[in-house]
Amino acid sequence: MTLKATLAALATGFALAAAPAFTLAAGPAIAEPIRIGAYVSATGPNAFLGDPEMKTLKLLVDSINAAGGIKGQKLELFAYDDAGDATQARSFALRLVKQDKVVVVLGGSNTGTTMAAVPVFQDEEIPFISLAGAIVVTSPTKEWVFKVPATDRIAAERSLAHMKARGLTKVAMLNGSDGYGQSGREQTLKAAKEVGVDIVADEIYAPTDTDMTAQLTRIRNSGAQAILNFGIGASPSIIARNVKQLGLTQALYLSPAVASRAFLENTGAAAEGVHIPVSAVLLAGKLPASHPQAAVAEAFRTAFESSLKEPVSYGAGIAYDALKIAVGAIERVVAAGKPVTPEAIRAEIEKTRGYVGLNGVVNMTPQDHMGLDSSAFIIAVVKDGDWQLAP
């Protein structure tokens, strides 16, 4: 299959016209364009997530606009870069709703930028699909809020279960003081009781810290057999290097947020042996053919890397699924002959069933606005400088 054909097949139902600061030429519209909004952290400390998210939105939507849009109707994407700032995120949310008049929004590269904007979408009744991992995004269920990646609770359960299967039942936590880190900490404490492992140390660091040897020294003296970190940005790389520098032998598990080629490059040899629960896209080409996501993961990886000349990443996969789910909902609204309104789109997003994406097989309900189970994550290990399926 040619690259053009691959992109068209992956992004069926997608279309895009330009957004401020992220401009793409669009073909002539047959009808009034459907306005879609997005805000991500394309720059700043969370650019390792937001940059590939923005690139993915452009790549997929542009290819579909060129193919005719949704039954000849183009999508107009208004996309903004919040640079990882929660205040900016809220401002852009208001702009998307009040000024740009969008009917659905994708965004929130992290928990902070997501939760800052959630009240806007709830109050204005605009469907919002978050790209953040924390369980708080959709628990409790919020009428207008959905999310793509599996929660930090599922990530904690998968990591702890893998540890236990290896005979590692004494675990130390080392988490950031930010929203993602503390949500991961809380969910790990709950999951540990269910999985049957003991938390023997509970350490915290500030996202701006450049050395965690003090916390890791205390962990070394705690009797822990494994270390679990929920962190973003540079912190996980610092932790991995500090573990090696101190000569610690405990197994190190990190969160899905750092599952990227950038982490491997930034961490170097210290990444060897690190375990992470990842989505299928990071193991594209390495999954057994029988895996339900093997085909879509490999097709997307090929299209992304061929077009952008950079490795596919966790963020890219999240953006793909968010847009695919949103446009799938719009397609169903159009097919039913209904006006494309926020209310109609919200109802169809909630009906998403059997969607095989890069982050899992999605089955949403009115009570579950994520629609994923523990199979959404696969445990990967760094071996010879690359991600591999963990035994």
TrEMBL record:
<keyword id="KW-0029">Amino-acid transport</keyword>
<feature type="domain" description="Leucine-binding protein">
    <location>
        <begin position="33"/>
        <end position="385"/>
    </location>
</feature>
<keyword id="KW-0732">Signal</keyword>
<keyword id="KW-0813">Transport</keyword>
<dbReference type="InterPro" id="IPR028081">
    <property type="entry name" value="Leu-bd"/>
</dbReference>
<dbReference type="Pfam" id="PF13458">
    <property type="entry name" value="Peripla_BP_6"/>
</dbReference>
<comment type="similarity">
    <text>Belongs to the leucine-binding protein family.</text>
</comment>
<feature type="signal peptide">
    <location>
        <begin position="1"/>
        <end position="17"/>
    </location>
</feature>
<dbReference type="GO" id="GO:0006865">
    <property type="term" value="P:amino acid transport"/>
</dbReference>
<dbReference type="InterPro" id="IPR051010">
    <property type="entry name" value="BCAA_transport"/>
</dbReference>
<protein>
    <submittedName>
        <fullName>ABC transporter substrate-binding protein</fullName>
    </submittedName>
</protein>
<dbReference type="InterPro" id="IPR028082">
    <property type="entry name" value="Peripla_BP_I"/>
</dbReference>
<dbReference type="InterPro" id="IPR000709">
    <property type="entry name" value="Leu_Ile_Val-bd"/>
</dbReference>
